[in-house]
């Protein structure tokens, strides 16, 4: 008989079991994708910006962990209506009601916390889609994941002239003198297409950008940023993360161009400059993965110019919660 238990403080042994379930689940649903390392999973379980985490584990009669559920409760003012669910059942233990029981526990907790919406990410075409539909979730966003083969990519746009604009870049946290301008530019991400998702908004301040960089540093991740500046203002920026222990694949984080500076090719410029810099500083990195909303045509065009190719899809699902 499977039992579901809340986990208050994950022990090292439980974190290893969590990794085991997650890696088996992802390998089953995304064959060919590199599964996360134990170190990456442990880091994800402990650190998060402006959020708290709750967790549950499903254990079989023999004591083996068969499923895991994590709930991220956002704490900042623009997102404190929202909870994000991560739910995985080991492929050998699916279709036995474990996912439903883990979801019920997480849902109850989210409702108890007064949350309005529960969001979850699933592999496009995977069992998570059917499961979510069976539990009353609604599909609110489709994200196309693209991959860039760094060796084949075209970074010539990095050499373009953009009169009045200069490029800058840094590793880790933003230099102090750019922090306020960076926070202002980050707020431009709030108009990123998020479909029908009840995503809320994030208010970036200099303090928050430093805390975000610290979360990544604490995980052992490397955060690279390239930005375009004009008259002391940040017109746009792009971020790439190389996760701890990663040798091959880098992840694209934000790319944003502030509305007043759009339509001038700055998005392509900063991304091409990032690519060029990455080639020089991290020659072992062979690919960059990005995900963008399927209706984000401008960013798609920029990515195609650089050489990004369609790779896979994820779907974001949302459940309306009943709060007391
Ligand atoms: C989605 C997932 C958590 C489901 O776990 P599970 O323990 O198999 O789920 P349950 O047994 O509780 O399934 C409940 C219902 O969901 C539906 N369902 C789940 N998997 C299904 C599948 N592969 N095909 C068709 N229906 C499916 C069925 O209606 C099922 O009821 P039934 O078995 O009585 O027909 C599991 O497949 C998984 O870990 N997937 C990868 C991670 C993921 O997508 N997570 C996001 C979920 S929010």
Could you name the ranges where pLDDT drops below 50 across 5 or more consecutive residues? none
- How much of the sequence lies in strands comes to 25-35%
Rounded to an integer in angstroms, the radius of gyration calculated over CA atoms is 20 Å
CATH architecture of the largest domain: 3-Layer(aba) Sandwich
* Tally of distinct domains: 2
Distance between the termini: 32 Å
Could you name the CATH class of the largest domain?
Alpha Beta
Blueprint (SSEs and pairs):
Elements (H helix, E strand, L loop, with lengths): L2 E5 L4 H18 L8 H9 L4 E9 L5 E10 L7 E8 L8 H15 L4 E7 L3 H8 L3 E12 L16 E6 L7 H8 L19 H14 L2 E9 L2 E10 L6 E9 L8 H16 L5 E7 L3 H10 L2 E12 L4
Parallel strand pairs: 4-5, 10-11
Antiparallel strand pairs: 1-2, 2-3, 3-4, 5-12, 6-11, 6-12, 7-8, 8-9, 9-10
Helix pairs in contact: 1-2, 5-6, 7-8
The structure holds coenzyme A (COA).
What does this structure look like?
With 324 residues, the chain is of the alpha+beta class. It has two domains: 3-115, Gcn5-related N-acetyltransferase (GNAT) (Aminopeptidase, 3-Layer(aba) Sandwich); 146-312, 3-Layer(aba) Sandwich (Aminopeptidase). Helices cover 30% and strands 32% of the residues. The protein has eight helices and twelve strands. The protein has helices spanning 12-29, 38-46, 98-112, 127-134, 179-186, 206-219, 266-281, 297-306, and strands at residues 3-7, 51-59, 65-74, 82-89, 117-123, 138-149, 166-171, 222-230, 233-242, 249-257, 287-293, 309-320. The chain has a twelve-stranded mixed sheet, with helices on both faces. The longest helix is centred in the N-terminal third of the chain and has 18 residues, at 12-29. The radius of gyration is 20 Å and the shape is globular. The two termini are 32 Å apart. The model has no long low-confidence stretch (mean pLDDT 95). The chain binds coenzyme A (COA). The site of coenzyme A has 23 residues, from helix 1, strand 4, helix 3, strand 5 and helix 4.
